[in-house]
Q: What sequence folds into this?
């Protein structure tokens, strides 16, 4: 392999399509082009494929087939889960908690409901690693608390949350737990029973599926009231003709991902350690915001005292390296990352870089990455 080959270290933004997903899409797109709601045989075939994919996701995430909803992406699945559950809980359970490090697609729908006066929203602080403390979260619960939003793992620093420990405290109080596992699936176990949550969101493009589909799974019996106009598709939660081939491809990516998950996680943990150790040796003034013990396998967030994150991303891009400044979706906006502010990283919040690895990342890639980061830093410091 050539030493100047491109290096993709932005898997947390989106992952390359898996071969299994591409093959499944090609196999399904021609015969299953029909509308899955049509009564004729073309429609019935498309519906059968759609339901097969739904059964696959439901079995893997630990719910019934009718409790599994396909959406357009993870952001929309968060919106439908949160707004749908809140609407069903009102007017009595109008107090909602969310961790201070949730993804914008969790924060935004809840803030909108709070601004409209529908709910009372309260943020739960995190420690310096970005973790909530289950006991202090429980202490914030009131008789009117209906829902808690807690992600499985963070999109910027990778911190894994104690979701099941929080769930154990919420269940006796009858408080629902919404868990955004968009970053976590493929790295750690993410089922409704393992996380013990009531609503679970995953996004196939993060684990080698196609873009254009998201998934919301719910525990049986959790009431969801659609925030949109009631529709025929997805048990009335969301309308629109389903993209059957894309959903089938997502199910193929899920199957392949879960087959390799443990092996990939072990390898990525070792690679993240290797990267962190080499970077700290080469650049002793680096600050690491991801603690390998608590972070998702393969995700390292770091900052250098004198270099803005966007400068370093641009310089690395010139050298054929893809990394992110903060989370990819927030990185075009020149606002300090709320995640880094929440962990108290005030001074260096503008300098943070997220390196994220995936199933094809090798130790050679990591060694080359370190060399290119060091060269980019030297270049920027001597401008
Ligand atoms: C934690 C988290 N939640 C939700 C999303 C949104 O997913 P999607 O891009 O599928 O809308 C992302 C995407 O980066 C994410 O990292």
A:
């Amino acid at each position: 392999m050539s030493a100047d080959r491109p290096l993709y270290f932005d898997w947390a933004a989106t992952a390359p399509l898996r071969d299994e997903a591409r093959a499944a899409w090609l196999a399904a797109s021609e015969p299953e082009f029909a509308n899955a709601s049509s009564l004729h045989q073309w429609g019935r075939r498309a519906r059968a494929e759609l339901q097969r994919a739904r059964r696959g996701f439901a079995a893997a995430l630990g719910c019934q087939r009718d409790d599994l909803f396909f959406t357009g992406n993870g952001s929309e699945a968060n919106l439908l889960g949160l707004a749908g559950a809140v609407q069903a809980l009102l007017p009595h359970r109008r107090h909602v908690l969310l961790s201070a490090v949730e993804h914008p697609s969790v924060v935004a729908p809840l803030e909108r409901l709070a601004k409209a006066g529908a709910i009372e929203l309260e943020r739960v602080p995190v420690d310096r690693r970005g973790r909530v403390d289950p006991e202090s979260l429980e202490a914030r619960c009131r008789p009117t608390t209906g829902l808690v939003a807690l992600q499985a793992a963070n999109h910027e620093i990778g911190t894994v949350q104690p979701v099941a420990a929080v769930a154990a405290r919420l269940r006796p109080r009858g408080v629902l737990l919404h868990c955004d596992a968009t970053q976590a699936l493929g790295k750690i176990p993410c089922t409704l029973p393992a996380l013990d949550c009531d609503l679970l969101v995953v996004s196939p493009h993060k684990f080698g599926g196609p873009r254009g589909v998201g998934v919301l799974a719910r525990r049986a019996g959790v009431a969801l009231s659609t925030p949109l106009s009631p529709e025929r598709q997805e048990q009335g939660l969301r309308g629109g003709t389903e993209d059957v081939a894309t959903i089938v491809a997502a199910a193929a990516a899920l199957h392949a991902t879960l087959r390799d998950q443990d092996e990939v996680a072990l390898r990525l943990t070792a690679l993240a350690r290797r990267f962190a150790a080499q970077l700290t040796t080469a650049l002793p003034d680096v600050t690491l915001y991801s603690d390998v013990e608590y972070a998702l396998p393969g995700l390292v967030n770091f900052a250098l005292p004198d270099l803005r994150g966007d400068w370093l991303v641009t310089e690395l891009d010139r050298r054929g390296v893809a990394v992110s400044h903060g989370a990819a979706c927030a990185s075009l906006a020149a606002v300090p990352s709320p995640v880094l502010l929440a962990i108290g990283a005030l001074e260096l919040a503008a300098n943070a870089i997220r390196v994220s690895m995936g199933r094809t990342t090798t130790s050679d890639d990591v060694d080359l990455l370190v060399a290119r980061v060091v060269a980019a830093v030297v270049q920027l410091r001597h401008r």
